[in-house]
Amino acid sequence: MGNFSPFPRKINLLDVALDEKRTQYFSDITDNFTSKMHYHWKYIKGRDGEFPEVYILYTDGNRIKVEANKDRKKVRLYVESANGNIVQSSIINGIVIEEKDMLGNLETSIGDEFCFLSNELSSIPDTKILRLIDGKYGILTEFLGKITRQKNQDVQTIKRIFQGIVSFPGKVYQRFIHFLEDLFEKPSAWDILDFCVVASLGYLAYIQNFNYFFGGVIAVAGALLSGYTDWLWRKKDPYLLKLFMILIPAVYVVRYGLIYQ
Q1: Which of 12, 16, 157, 213 is the most buried (most CB within 10 A)?
Q2: So what's the pLDDT on residue 90?
Q3: Could you tell me the pLDDT band of residue 202, with boundaries at 50, 70 and 90?
Q4: Separation of alpha carbons 69 and 54, rounded Å
């Protein structure tokens, strides 16, 4: 029977609690890191045959370039940091072959510059390249983010602008149709009453002294008051046709009164 025991094995509750805490700790680290991986890498084809794939990232004043040749298992990291330092690291199959301080004025080690940007470098949307780096400088070996690789960003921008220009006449037409629908919608009883009251007040103001200017000003004020009443008290959009039918003749009468009286 060997070491078989008919009694159930005692479970160490402390070990269980520690395992749960450990699992939650690493889960929190992964979630926290993933939530910060909103970096927009630009992907381009390399101009030379040595590194056919190139990723470029601009973030917080830093310029990061990652060049890769998956067939030869080579990766070259290039960083122009916001503090003015420029460093480069060449990695072949997970082994750092060469590190360079391009300006020769680095006060700290070259590796510290890459470690400082390990989150950004870990966000490269290509797990194969991350595995070639093999965890150097604290860079993850697997892409955990959700962003997609952006190819030819300039072309995409021009495409969006062109689509906006092409669709502009259609949008203008739709807005014009909506404007006409609002303009010629069926008037309510309040709209008809407002028109009659404002027109009557304007006419009464005119016949007092046969003053076109005074009558037109009263009509304009009445139209504006009617619009504010619709909006503030009746809780509806002002009826545009009513306003135009009052304002256009009223403005003409005001102008006529200013010129000929």
Answers
A1: 213
A2: 93
A3: confident
A4: 9
